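Subject: Sanity check before I submit

Could someone independently write out the structure tokens for this chain? I want to compare against mine line by line before I put it in a report. The sequence has 384 residues.
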Amino acid sequence: MPVQTICSRNDCTGCGACANICPADCIRLVEDALGVLYPEVDETKCIDCGACLGSCPANLPSDAHTPFQTWAVFAGDAQARRTSASGGAAAVLYRTVVEQGGAVFGTVFDDALRPVFKMAGSAGELEPFKGSKYVQSDTGRIFRQVREILKSQPQRTVLFIGTPCQVDGLLRFLRHPYDRLVTVDLVCHGVPPARYLQEHIAQMEADSGRKAEKITFRGERDFALTLCDAKGVFYSRPRYEDLYFSAFLKSLTYRESCYRCRYASERRVADLTIGDFWGLGVDTPYPHDKRDGVSVLLVGTEKGRLLFAQCRPRLVCEQRTREEAVQGNAQLRAPSVPHPRVDVFRERYPAQGFEKAAAACLGRSVAAQRLTGPAKRLIAKLLK
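---
Independent answer below. Compare away.
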């Protein structure tokens, strides 16, 4: 069964709701020629039950709502703020829930530096959840794990943090509300396939002769893609000097559904929404230092408000207007605009791979002339 029989290919987000709900386990997400995850159905096992059609968010109207509170927040613990993304709001949410005995679900990089969903039930398991992951994560069968906890441990709070399409996929999979489930969606620009990041890491490893064991997208004061092994950092470049990061920020590498994302709106599908509070203080002064990051936190439901209230002792909070958040965050208004050469990238990628295809499309907009050493030689070679 082709993906078109589940939903339009251009609207498929790769959320995985169809694969999770299939009673025959005949659906799996596989990469196409561009590395994009789409569902593939084993027709020999399919029982034509239609569960995949009924759970696909692309086939259903979103149950979106307008947030009723807007906050600028950051972690009160200075170290936690510096080592987390966007002021550390997600880290505080995770920690608050697990310390109350709850279970949390979010994205981590596994041992192969692939982005996957994982569950944590203790504070000691939370470190890998920190930091932004500018790449599409594989939900696998995580929705089933969420459902199992909600059903078998009905008094246990479950927190799920993901992109809006992943949150909507989970809600469609569950089919009815659970009082103990709190969802958090991210203000999302779009998601590149994980294969692009894997290829980029492999190139940096080959160029340096070292094997990456950790990746981060943020330094203490700015955005940078950094790779580390047991000896320390062996590659680190600011966002517009790294090929992968620059391609992401310039909207070159997202899956097609991101460019038409219906979740890119101030109306949200989750109980809470978090992201960077861009534009904070432009018109109305903000009294705190913003250099270590400030999160926007939108409260959309009463469940979200109650969890936020429990987190507030760990946060520095100031209420702001929703208009300020929407004005500063483009993805609260509309989807990302495709890079003008996105079609060229897609045409070149299957034969050339990520490094050559992205470099050819971005050209000198990646500041290769300011790089030093192996990275400069690599990009100069690709631009010839």
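---
OP: Matches mine. For the report I'm noting this point. The chain has three domains: 3-59, 69-191+255-332, 194-252+340-382.
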